[in-house]
Fold Exportin 7.
Amino acid sequence: MAASLDLQTLEQYCETLYNPPNPSGRIQAESLLNYHFPTFSNTNGYNANGAGSESVQGHNPNIASPIESALLCRNLLENSTNPYALMFGTSRLKTLVDDQFTSFSTAEQHGLRTFVLQYIYEHPDLQPFIISSQAQLFAIITKLGWIENQEFRALLDQIQVFFQQGVGHRVLGVRLLTAVATEMNLPGTKNVVKHRKAAVGFRDAQLLPIFQAALSMLQSVLQSQQSDPPTEKLKEALMLLMKACLAFDFIGSSYEDSSEDMGSLQIPTTWRPVFEESGYLDILWESWKTFASPVSVLVMECLSQAASIRRSLFSGDDSRHAYIYRFMQEIMQTLTTAAGQNKLQDLGNYHEFCRMLSRFKMTYQLSEVSSYKDIQQWLSAVGEFTAQGFLSWKWSPNSVPYLLTFWNKTVGSLSSVKHETELQIEAITVNLAGAYLKSCLECVHAVMDGDADDPLESEEALLVSLDMFANIARTKHTESGRLLVNEFNNLSIKYRELIQRATSMGGAASTGSTDIKESLLVVELKLTWLVYLMSSIIGARVMYQSTSEQDQMDGEFACEILGFIHQLQVWTAQRPLYFASPDAHLHIQSSIIYFYQQFRATYIGEESSKAVKVYTQLSSRWGLNTPNQVLNVIMDSALNNLRSIGDPAWKKQEDLLVLRTLKLFMNLASGYSSVKYIRKLETTKALLKNHSAPGFKFLDPTRTSSDTAVARCRTIYYTMLSRILFAEDNVDAEFWKFIKPWEATLDRVALAFVGGGDLGEEDIRLILLGMFKDLRGFVSSITNRRQYNLFYEWFYPAYTPIVLRAIEIWPQNEIGIAILRFWHEFVTNKSSRVTFDSSSPNGILLFRETSHLLSAYGSNLLSRPITDESTRWSEKYKGIMLYFNIMSVSLSGKYTNFGVFKLYGDKALDRVLDIFFQLMLAIPVADMIAFPKLGASFFSVIDVFATDHMTGMPSMPQPVLEYIFRAVGESVPLLGHDSSCSTMACSAIDKICSFVLNWLIKNKTRISDSADSADEMLETDEIEDPVRVARDRLLSTGSINGAAAAAAAAAAASAAAGVRGSVDLSGGASGLLSKRLREQQQQEGAHWLVEYVLRNKDVMNYLLVVLFSVVVFENRNNHWALSRPLLGLILLNRDLFAEYTSLFVQAQLPDRQEPLQKLVHGLMEGIETNLSTANRDRFTTNTNAFRRECSQMTLMPVSPDDSGIMS
């Protein structure tokens, strides 16, 4: 066995790994197993499947390659019977294959795959989880070697040996095929193009024969009529295989599983005979009727897939119609026969049957379905089934959306069917609307009895169903709407009676009052459902398609709902708190908010004048003649939601209601027309004058919430008010009135800071915490220069000292975070709003204040220890992130001339940069990468710093430079959905390389131009790579100074070896330099950044190798960003690039070296030694072609350490 471990000890460690007695035991077992079974992976850690990579302690030196480790795993599988050891060996093999497959030769790949296949064949009685893992291993090997190994493509022939044995082996064979089909369908993470090529090859060569073999075996099993346990396993395995085949991503669309109910299956044309000639549907439907659950559920899943194959697959209309009619025939038979009804009594079958109906209608047009000979009976059967499904919602609530989808799609294309069919569907929709209404009202009783979850608690999911119901109900709007109005009127009458009874009884709790309270709650929740249903129908109105009768019904809906709102407001004002329920209050008001949203979207806007019938109804009953009047009602009514009754038991519901109300206001304030309307309302004007009303408890800073969305209510509130305030142009006077309450509050705080007033420290802290949240929201909606200058004029310099004082007193408190977030918004120059007059010093003064703030906060951060590693984000890193964000927007704001600070000896910029460097060094690079928000802020400021400020500094500390280069180097290879960090890191690298390269070119050219005469120039045939020569000459001077001299010396060795420069880099020999040029070399020195780059070539070499590897081996969405710095790195060190690419080519298999060498040469074809736009674009084109061709080959990466060229 492995080195010094005997088999028994190894098995014990494997068992400890998967079933540890304690955490330390698992860690010890993991470390030992990683030592003896290394994966040679670059990542550390342990995966749940036991395939973790080796620990930081390294691995057994006697194991020199992945193939040797794989042989040890194979040895373990051959000699052990312990299930934990077998699981570890299989999992470790999967990791080795997945990470190191290119290091295996073709023979080794073939041998390992043959071993796995033979092992499964010889051990059919292993535990299912081991068999599953082994099958996955076989599938991974098959997938990765599909392109290069011809033998792997004869998959079905190799599995035939399993089918020639008993049922047990046939089950194994089917599971192997399922594993391969599933693995082939998974997107690759390392080489997406190659993996897709393998998937396409598998699809074209093997998937159809596999599916046909599964169909043939299913038919045989069906005919055998056996139901013993082994046969049941075979049935299940066959259905899973067929399901995997049909679920294959045939065209590379890669849609997520969550959206698999959308769209049709893009079955290839070669599969046409299966669906037209093989009796596929007959076999599936007969299987569904014959097999018992849960296998029958799998069959119905396959039927659901079969119902959604693309329409264009069929050879003609006749064959497609025959397929559709067969489906419809079986559906009607299922719905109208006792056998079919009994089958649907199983919950799984019922749910999948509903799903099949939905997908069938989503795929095939109503015009095709309606041509079925028994269409009327079919529609009636499905309609009755749907109505029963609505009423049976408690039994299978997740099936209702599928039934809604079926009819939503059906009513969406009524214009394409015959008139009698249209009338029938319209009649059915009225029945469905009534059934759905009844189910919603019955839901109230079920929820109160504790028999079901409350759908009202998940509003997002509820609204999806309401949208579909609205389309169905609006098909026959008048009839369906009349059902809702009648029910609404009946409940309203009952509601008034209960209110009268409750009022007469008073607020004391008694048996009678308890009954009335419950009855009131039931009626209120039923009315809530009706408000939701009516509102959804209003929102489903389609402009230019709605008739006056439909608008009239919408008007009735609106009048009834407004009547309920009025009645509710009166009752709320007088009811004893005993009769109220916080949950019911939240649901009722949420439904009213939904009504406001739908009505605003439909009937308030530029086209509202065309909806005459709606406003006729509103005018006759409520005196609302115009959209402005309705908006006033909305604002006045919704504002009540911002007020609190003061009961702690209501806090959670009130907070959620405030959040939903503010989102309504934000929606109203976001529309161009509606915000203009709102701005003119008396309610809004009053709100702007009294925006900090005492009744708005959410403005109380002592009112906290664990919900971050609720905690942002203050910010959202003032964002909305700011939008409304600035909706008009000339608002100076109103602005000064608006900020009066803030002035009074801040003046009290300022007085308290100097020892006056009656505010205590905690009072000041809470006041400022809320104040800076308010100011942040207010400033975030400022969009132009005039608005910003108004705020700036008020806030600076009167109140900026309060900011500095607060950050000095409470840097570790949440108020510190609130201040930084406000300041970040305050100094962000979005939409060029931070623009001052050319003679104004405000931009400089603004940055000076920023400097004071960051210096104070940064100094505290530096002295703040991390007491608990698990809380380092909240304790320190969150503040550092905000520091970086403020610094980034300040340096890139373009409203400050930073040269002024150096010119007049002002240390404002130096202080900020000094603390920035210290904060940077205080964070381990691993943490900078591990925390996405922190990393994004860091690389953003580094990108900005490298753009305008880095090269202007007289010098930078060596540790800071090393940290920056290390951080950008480690961020580039990271895989992730968000590529912004690597993009910004590449941008910073590109700017540094561009500066160094342009500096060399510039100084080289100046020396050439400074030569005494043309005859001092060297001949063209003596020219070498000018950058390399300049670099070598500079390095040979001992201390890098004398840029001109170095550049002139470089000219002495310039060569024309294939490098064409847009700038002539050749110059006179060093011995022919004039006296004037020698004097210049003594006065001028190399820039410190040039010196660092040239002196620390390993840093740039590492970046070059890493970027090159990412371009070759990874599929990124930011290839353009990756190619930009790569060109500069190559031009700075062509020798290293040539050496590394040579090693890279030699590391590949012999048959791939020659074509790869041609690709490497093509990468630099036509590239000049400059960074002009044309040259960059040409290199990007070459890079894309190079990457595309490399993706077609299986290549082995060569890491910087393995290359041996980094020293």
User: Anything to note?
Assistant: The first helix runs from residue 7 to 18. Residues 1103-1203 form one domain. The chain has a mean pLDDT of 86.
